């Protein structure tokens, strides 16, 4: 029995999220259907670093699965990509130890969020960025990002629908915002992220960029531990699971 780790990228606009749903097209559903075909009808259940919602994209999602086949990594990649649809691609296949787990061995996750800051929308980019037609103060947003960094209880920035039990303490190693031309890029790296956490943080940061809040308000929001204080959950279209890192000993 071999355990395979795969780095997967996908265009989330054609999926009802990552997790299997009986009546809907999902990334996990597509991947497991291909694995079943390769294994001649035997079902293979995969594990992922985490779920992504409807419309969320991935550049570096990570999955693992176990197989009875002794196939080279190169041939695994070729076989999978031959059968997968055009909106999913396996970037890398690596044989790993049985101790490796795509979800529980995660050391760090990185998300990017893209905002198209123009007066008029671009219909061709509507599935891949969030259109925001208002003027933004990027310096103020950058100041606010620094307040998000560190170890905090991020209850205010977590969906009220979250099923996570226990504390909502997470560590953000990096939070930043830059603008090039009409594109605003947010980057977040952390130990883990709560349900809708990135989308809620970006929503608040855009409020700060508009002058509706001050950068220091981040500290107040964190202290409140109240989802109702943070405003709406922004569109999933601009969100990308960018990279997942693991302890080298678990590779």
Describe this protein's structure.
This protein has 251 residues and is of the alpha+beta class. The protein folds into two domains: 2-104, 2-Layer Sandwich (Alpha-Beta Plaits); 106-244, Pseudouridine synthase I, catalytic domain, C-terminal subdomain (Alpha-Beta Plaits). Helix content is 22%, strand content 30%. The protein contains five helices and ten strands. The chain has helices spanning 27-38, 73-83, 138-148, 197-209, 217-224; strands at 2-10, 47-48, 57-67, 88-96, 106-116, 130-131, 150-153, 169-180, 183-190, 239-246. Strands 1, 2, 3, 4, 5, 6, 7, 8, 9 and 10 form a ten-stranded mixed β-sheet that branches. Helix 3 packs across helix 4 (197-209). It is globular, with a radius of gyration of 19 Å.
Instruction: Give a short account of the largest sheet.
Output: 10 strands, mixed
Helix content: 10-25%
Q: State the distance separating the first and last CA atoms.
A: 17 Å
C-alpha Rg (nearest Å): 19 Å
Note the overall shape.
globular
- What's the number of domains? 2
Condensed summary:
The protein is an alpha+beta fold and 251 residues long.
Keywords:
251 residues; alpha+beta; Alpha-Beta Plaits; 2 domains; ten-stranded mixed β-sheet; 5 helices; globular
